[in-house]
Specification:
Layout: E1 18-19, E2 22-23, H1 26-29, E3 43-44, E4 49-50, E5 58-68, E6 74-78, E7 88-97, H2 103-106, E8 109-114, E9 117-122, E10 130-140, H3 142-148
Antiparallel strand pairs: 1-4, 2-3, 5-10, 6-9, 7-10, 8-9
């Protein structure tokens, strides 16, 4: 099972503090589309997350989810933070079921659109498998964006 935890950490957090995640009662705090959830006792999630303050060049981070179902070649979702898409970078985390190792099943084009401000994911052809992914949209200052640009020759 793969679990994505999305949360906002409030002010007053210092660099180097840790965040530990625990599910107090999986049977009531975890939702599944099929099957049952067990046990109903607290579950510690191994490892700790070390918190760091984002440097001044990061303006915002937005988390969005996009799903490509069977027969779907593209999907989009609106961005909610009013980002300048010219200064945004998408980071993709994927979960897929029933796919082969074929690049058509696993690789997507991810791009931004300006009207409305949104992110779009496209695969080469409408697949017959389900794909779900979480994007982190990092909005950075224009001066830093120039440092991150590069070309493949």
């Amino acid at each position: 099972m793969c679990v994505y935890v999305v949360l906002d950490v409030g002010s007053g957090v210092s660099d180097g503090e840790t965040l530990d995640i625990k599910i107090d009662d999986p049977s009531t705090e975890v939702t599944v589309s099929t099957g049952t959830v067990a046990p109903n006792t607290p579950m510690e999630i191994s490892g700790s997350t070390y918190l760091v303050t984002l440097p001044a060049y990061v303006k915002s981070v937005e988390y969005v989810e996009i799903q490509l179902g069977s027969g779907t070649a593209s999907a989009s979702t609106d961005l909610a933070k009013g980002q300048d898409i010219n200064n945004c970078v998408p980071f993709d985390t994927q979960m897929h079921t029933g796919m082969s190792d074929d690049f058509d099943d696993t690789l997507l084009d991810i791009y931004f659109e300006s009207s409305p401000i949104r992110v779009t994911a496209v695969r080469r052809a409408a697949g017959d498998k389900y794909r779900h992914f979480l994007l982190r949209i990092l909005s950075i200052l224009p001066d830093i964006r120039r440092l991150l640009q590069f070309k493949f020759l």
